[in-house]
Specification:
- The complex is a heterodimer of chains A (108) and B (173).
- Chain A has 108 residues and is of the alpha/beta class.
- Chain A has one domain: Transcription Regulator spoIIAA (2-Layer Sandwich), CATH 3.30.750.24.
- In chain A, α1 packs parallel to α2.
- The termini of chain A are far apart.
- Chain B has 173 residues and is α+β, with helices and mostly antiparallel strands.
- Chain B has a single domain, classed as Histidine kinase-like ATPase, C-terminal domain (Heat Shock Protein 90, 2-Layer Sandwich), CATH 3.30.565.
- In chain B, β3 and β4 form a beta hairpin.
- The longest helix of chain B is centred in the middle third of the chain and has 21 residues.
- The radius of gyration of chain B is 18 Å and the shape is globular.
- Chain B starts with a strand and ends with a strand.
- Classes of the chains: A alpha/beta (108), B alpha+beta (173).
Chain lengths: 108, 173
């Protein structure tokens, strides 16, 4: 799993490439501890290169979402493959994490 | 402690034994074997994160040999990761324990058996999370087995000779 960060129109775009599972989710949590604690921007996660997510990955996403919302910034995801979007719907996370079709759509 | 085997059965296999086929022909036959034939794959993983990575590799190879789609592979990987990580976290499995996995695909029905040597733990008794709660009331855990139920058609548990045995069925469309 690779994490790439880019700033665009005042938002932090975080691209996650590969798998977000029991093995790699701790890497994302560690990144969040260092890079967005506390958050200073709205954060958009670009999932266009994300191939797979399991409950361990969703746990990391929930914790990051809570952290960002607590500081009154927004957290959203974009460009997720259908099976990843389905996982968000089954989990009910789509009720509190906005899902956009593209990075452009996610920006204000 | 990894063991792996792949068996073929059915008329075509006996007419055209595997040792008489070149590697290309064998791949081609496997891809047309999807319906009707019984395909079996068995392997063991150690009860640790390394084991979960081995699980992914075993499943990728099986998906290729059985001509499963990327979506089918993702769903099967998710089911098995959630069950195995549950046994690793809650069942006190460790690198000394192994988790045995058997996959059988026959007539579009995938039967999975997961055998674990850890203390008694029946994942079917774990209650579902409330997925309608707002974000501040959502807890981080509990989704894994909920995903397993969503992506499977039946799940049952049996304690046999001091082992946990989970039997899962999934229709492969």
């Amino acid at each position: 799993m690779y994490i790439t960060v880019e700033n665009k129109d005042g938002s932090m775009i975080v691209s996650i490439e590969g798998r977000l599972d029991s093995i790699t989710s701790s890497k994302l949590e560690k990144w969040a501890d260092e890079a967005i604690t506390p958050p200073k921007h709205n954060v958009v996660m670009d999932f266009s290169q994300l191939e797979y997510i399991s409950s361990a990955g969703m746990r990391a996403i929930l914790n990051i979402s809570k952290l960002i919302n607590k500081h009154s910034y927004t957290f959203s995801i974009c460009s997720a493959h259908d099976h990843i979007r389905e996982i968000f719907e089954i989990s009910g996370f789509d009720s509190f994490i906005p899902i956009y079709r593209s990075v452009e759509d996610s920006l204000p | 402690m990894n063991s792996s085997s792949e068996k073929r059965s059915g008329d075509e296999a006996s007419k055209n034994p595997i040792w008489q086929q070149g590697p290309n022909e064998r791949t081609r036959n496997n891809s047309s074997n999807f319906f009707g034939k019984k395909m079996t794959k068995e392997f063991q993983i150690i009860g640790s994160l390394k084991g979960l990575d081995d699980l992914r590799v075993h499943l990728e190879k099986t998906a290729l040999a059985w001509s499963l789609s990327q979506n089918q592979l993702v769903e099967i990987n998710l089911i098995l990761e959630e069950i195995c990580s549950n046994y690793i976290e809650h069942g006190e499995s460790n690198a000394l324990n192994s988790i045995k996995i058997q996959l059988i695909l026959e007539n579009s029905l995938l039967s999975i058996r997961i055998t674990d040597e850890g203390p008694e733990f029946d994942p079917t008794t774990v209650s579902d999370p409330d997925v309608h709660l707002p974000i501040d009331k959502r807890k981080a855990g509990g989704l894994g087995l909920y995903f397993v139920k969503h992506y499977t058609d039946s799940i049952s548990y049996r304690r046999i000779n001091n082992t946990n045995n989970l039997f899962i069925e999934k229709k492969i469309k």
